[in-house]
């Protein structure tokens, strides 16, 4: 498979119909803003690696942001929708159920090692119906080992299903700079503070404050990957100062926004 230059003109071949343990291809778009795949699923598991740009992927029960040098694993059968932003470049691999036993049973974002990136690049240049012995078999075996060993990243935002809470969440995502308190959001939802807090914990496993912080983390990663400055992101998230935003980001991901993105664009 050659690297695809325009996903919208790509003649899709359903990977579930290809009798190979891994079906992979590469893709690059100079401007992926507005590119969207509606909710769908595959029998095979799917690994999406982002080399440049950013993807957001909503799977039942959660939203994942995938920045450069990261990937998302979507188990077979999981209903998911994908949106892209910025100049996009990456790789996509579908893994047959018989080969996915060592891979996570749930959707997750993972970091990508240089070896995993190169293995996916090699796999993306194989024809769909490649020979399954010799060098190809060894390549697939090592690729699966690297996929299974990939480190999970904290880029997941649990999404509620309760209609009342989903309305609150949608408003918060549409206006992330709104720093209204729990009391303010409870009043908007015509609920008591205690009811809102209890409901969001039941639906997401997080407190109101923790969920809003995680929302800030995933949006920050998405915007930074699309080229926004740290100052812009801090302002768009409603922080009064850049240092307070940097402190939040460092606590959540273990490093500063500048270093986090530099590591993903180095080399």
Kindly describe this structure.
Helices cover about 40% and strands about 25% of the residues. It starts with about 20 loop residues before the first strand and ends with a helix. The chain is globular. Residues about 1-10 have low confidence and may be disordered. Strands 1, 2, 3, 4, 5, 6, 7, 8 and 9 form a nine-stranded antiparallel sheet that branches. The protein is an alpha+beta fold and about 270 residues long. The chain is built from nine helices and nine strands.
**Helix content range of the residues, please?**
25-40%
What share of residues are in beta strands? 15-25%
Overall outline: globular
Question: SSE string, helix = H, strand = E?
Answer: EEEEEEEHHEEHHHHHHH
Tally of strands:
9
Alpha-carbon Rg, integer: 20 Å
Structural class: alpha+beta
Chain-averaged pLDDT: 86
The number of helical runs is: 9
Task: Characterize the biggest β-sheet.
Answer: 9 strands, antiparallel
Low-confidence stretches: 1-9
Measured between the Cα atoms of the first and last residue, the distance is 25 Å
């Amino acid at each position: 498979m050659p690297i695809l230059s325009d996903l919208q003109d790509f003649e899709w071949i359903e990977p579930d119909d290809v009798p190979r343990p891994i079906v992979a291809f590469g893709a690059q778009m100079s401007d992926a803003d507005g590119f969207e795949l509606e909710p769908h699923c595959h029998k095979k598991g799917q690994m999406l690696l982002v080399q440049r740009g950013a993807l957001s992927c909503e799977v039942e029960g959660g939203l994942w942001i995938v920045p450069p040098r990261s990937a998302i694993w979507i188990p077979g059968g999981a209903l998911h929708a994908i949106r892209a932003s910025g100049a996009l470049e990456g790789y996509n691999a579908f893994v047959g159920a018989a080969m996915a036993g060592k891979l996570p049973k749930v959707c997750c974002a993972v970091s990508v090692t240089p070896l995993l990136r190169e293995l996916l690049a090699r796999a993306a240049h194989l024809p769909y119906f490649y020979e399954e012995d010799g060098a190809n078999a060894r390549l697939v075996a090592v690729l699966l080992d690297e996929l299974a060993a990939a480190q999970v990243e904290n880029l997941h935002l649990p999404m509620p299903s309760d209609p009342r809470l989903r309305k609150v969440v949608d408003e918060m995502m549409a206006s992330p700079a709104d720093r209204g308190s729990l009391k303010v959001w409870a009043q908007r939802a015509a609920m008591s503070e205690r009811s809102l807090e209890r409901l969001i914990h039941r639906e997401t496993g997080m407190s109101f404050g923790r969920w809003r912080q995680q929302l800030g983390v995933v949006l920050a990663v998405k915007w930074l990957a699309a080229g926004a400055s740290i100052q812009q992101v801090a302002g768009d998230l409603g922080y009064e100062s850049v240092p307070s935003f940097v402190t939040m980001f460092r606590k959540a991901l273990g490093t500063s926004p500048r270093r986090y993105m530099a590591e993903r664009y180095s080399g």
